[in-house]
Amino acid sequence: MKSNHATKTGFRITGTKPSYVLESQSLCEQYGIDPSQLPIFEQLSDAELRDKLRDYGEFLAITDHFMERMLGTIAEPIPVLLAVCDYEASILQIRGDESIKSFMDQIGFKEGVRFTEELTGTNVVNLSLRLKRPIQLVGDDHYHRVFYQAACYSVPFRFEQLGDLTGTICLMTTAGLHNPLFMNMLQSTLDLIEREIMLRNQNKQLHILNQIMMETEINAVIVTDRKGQITEINKCATNIIGVPREKMLGQLAQSLPYVGSYFTQVLEKGSRFEDIELRIELRNLVGLFDVFPIRDEKGSLIGAYGHFRDITERYETEMKINYMAYHDELTTLPNRRMLIKYLEDKICDYERSDGNKLAVMFLDLDRFKMVNDTLGHSEGDVLLQQVASRLVRCIGSGDLVARMGGDEFMIVLERPHVKEIEETAREVLKTFGTSFVIGEYDFHVSASLGIAVCPDNGTDVNSLMIFADTAMYRAKAKGKNTYQFFDPDMPLITHEQLVLEMDLRKAIERGELLLHYQPQVIASTGQLVGLEALVRWQHPVLGIISPDKFVPVAEETGLILPLSLWVLNEACRQNKRWQDEGFRPIRVSVNLSALQFSDEAFVQTVASVLEETGLDPQYLELELTETMAMDVDHAVGTLNALKELGVQLAMDDFGTGYSSLNHLKRFGLHRLKIDQSFVRDLISDSNDADIVGTIIAMGHLLGLRVIAEGVETSEQFDFLLSKNATKCRDTISANRCRRIRL
C-alpha cells in the first residue's frame, strides 16, 4: 500500500517565477498559443468518458464525499472550485461554487475534457502530473490572460491499492485569496482519502473481526457482544480511553463516555451511525465515529462494531481556514466580513436592548503613508500591529475593534448616552499620545476619528459605515488628531474630494499645473542667489488651488510620482530657458516627495531630466525633509549618487524631524532650511528665537549654508542678519522672475 502525493509544497517567496513556469510558457509560445484567446480543451468521446468513469468509479465516490466536506468548511463568500483529473489530465469530477463553476464551464472547463499544454497552455494539471509534485499557479503564472485573476493548486496522487490509480486533485479560487493553506487542505484531503480507501479495502476482506483494523494505530475500534460487553478493543482505542486492554474487555460499551449512547441505540434498536463528529477534550482529539450492528448469517443482531477515525489535523486546518475568513492576518483583529456580520447582529438585537446607543467609529491614521514611504511596508506593518494592540487595550471587552484594510480601523461599541461615546473617542485619541517605537525610531502618529450613531443616523449597516467614514474625513479637514460626529451636511465634502481627485488625474495632460518661485537672497547684501519652485494648480473652475489642498490627495492616490516628475522637469526646463535668454545662471530648488526619494530609479530619473533639459547639474538643488532621511543607509547612498551628478542638496523644514548631527555629517548636504514655523514668531517668542539662533550656529559649524524660510517682516530680516543667516526667502510669481536682474 502506497501513496505518492507530495509532502512538501515548495511555495515561492519571491517575485521570480519558478523555472517550470518559465519553461512551460516558453513552450506555449513555441506552440503558437495566443494568450489573449480562451484556452482549448480536448473533448473526450462518450465511450472514453464512460470507460474512465468506470475505472475511477470507486475513487470518485470517495473524493465526492471528502470534497463536499472540504467545501463545507470554507466560508460562504470564498469562491472555490475543486476538480479530479486522471493520469491523462482528463477532468472526471468537478465540485464547488456555482458562480465560478458556471464561468469555467463557459470557458470549456467541464467534466469530460482533457488538459494538454499544446492547446490549454500553462496549467497546474499537466505540470503536477509531469513533474510529480504539488504545483501552484497564481495570476500571470498562467499563460492565458483569462486566468490572470485566478490562483490554482494541484497535488498528484497514486494509489496502488486501487490498481495503481494515478491522477491529480485541484483547487481553483481568485488570485486575491491565494493562500498556502489551500495546498495544505488538498494534501490533508488526499491523506483522508487514502485512509478511507484503506478502510474500505479492509472492510471488504473482513466479515466480523478485521484483524488488520484491530492492529492499526490510526483508528480506534471497539467490538461488543449482544449485551454490549466489549469483546475486542485495539491499542488506539485503549490509548484514547486511558485504560489497558485487559481491564476494558468485559466492560459495557454503553457506559463509555462520548460513544456510550450510540452503542445503546445500536444494541437496542439496530440503529446505524456514520460520521458522527466527536471532540474528546481530554485528549485534544477530533474524530468521526461510526457504529454498526453486527449480524450473523441469519441476520440476527449479535453485537456492535464501533470505529473512531482521528481527523484532528483536518479539523485544525478547517478551523484555520474559518479563522482566516473572519480575521485580519496581520493584526489578528476581526476583518471587514466579521465586522459587518457583528454589526448586523447588533442592529437586529437593538430593538430588544435596553436603549443603549450603538456607535460606529471609523479610525484612520494620520501620516501613515509617510511611514510606509520612508521606512518601507514591513515597518508600516509593525506600526499597524502596535496600533491594533493599543486599540484593543483601550476598548472595553464588550466592544469590537476591526481592521478594514490599510491604515483604517473600525470600532463598534454600546454606550448609554452620546456623552459616554465622546469619552471613549477621547480615550482612543489619547492612546496615540505616546510615541510608537519602530526599530530605532520613535514615531508620533495621530489618528482621525469619525462617528455615526444608531439609531440617530440610521439602522442600516452600510449607511452607518459610510457616515462614519464621511465624519472621519471631516475630522481630517479640521486638522486631524480629532473626532467628529456625522451630520447630514458632510457627504458634500467627500464628493468634493472625489471630484478633486478625478480632476487632478487630468491636470498634467491639460497643462493646468504651473510653478511659482520663492527668491533666496543673501541677508547681508540682498543679492538674489536662488529660487525655490512651488507647484500651483490653475483649476478651470476653482481657480488657483494651493498645494496643501491637492498634494495630500496626490499622496493618497499615488499621483504624487507623476506630479513630482512634472515639477522636476518644468523647473529644470524653465531655468535653462532663462539662461538661454541671457539671464545670469542661478540655482533652482525642487522639493522631493517621500515616495519619489525612496524610488530605486530616482537618481537615474534626475540624470535623465538634466540630460533632456540641458541644465547644468550645479543649478539644480533638491530638497528633502528629515523624515525622508530616516532610513539613513538608503539616504546616504542616494545623496552620494546625486552629489556625483553635481546636484546641490538641502535639508528642508529643519528642526521639525529626527535628524542627528552625526547623520547630517554623513548626508553631505550643502544647505539647511529653517522651517517657517520657527521664523514666524521668532520676534515675539523667545523659544523660537533661541531655536533659530541655535540652528544657524550649528549649520555654520558644520560648514553648511543656512536659509530661513517665510521671512515676511523687516524685524525678522534684521534678526536673521544679526545671526548671520546666509539667505532669506519670500514668495514671487514666475512672471515676476523674468523682470528681476539675475
TrEMBL record:
Alphabetical list of InterPro entries matching this protein: Biofilm_reg_signaling, EAL_dom, EAL_sf, GAF-like_dom_sf, GGDEF_dom, Nucleotide_cyclase, PAS, PAS-assoc_C
SMART domains (alphabetical): EAL (SM00052), GGDEF (SM00267)
Location of the EAL domain: 497-742
Domain of life: Bacteria
Domain PAC intervals: 271-323
Location of the PAS domain: 213-251
Sequence ranges assigned to domain GGDEF in this UniProt record: 356-488
NCBIfam families attached to this UniProt entry: GGDEF (TIGR00254), sensory_box (TIGR00229)
Signal peptide: none
The protein, known as: Diguanylate cyclase
Family annotation (Gene3D superfamilies): 3.30.450.40, 3.30.70.270, EAL domain, PAS domain
Family matches, as CDD domains: EAL, GGDEF, PAS
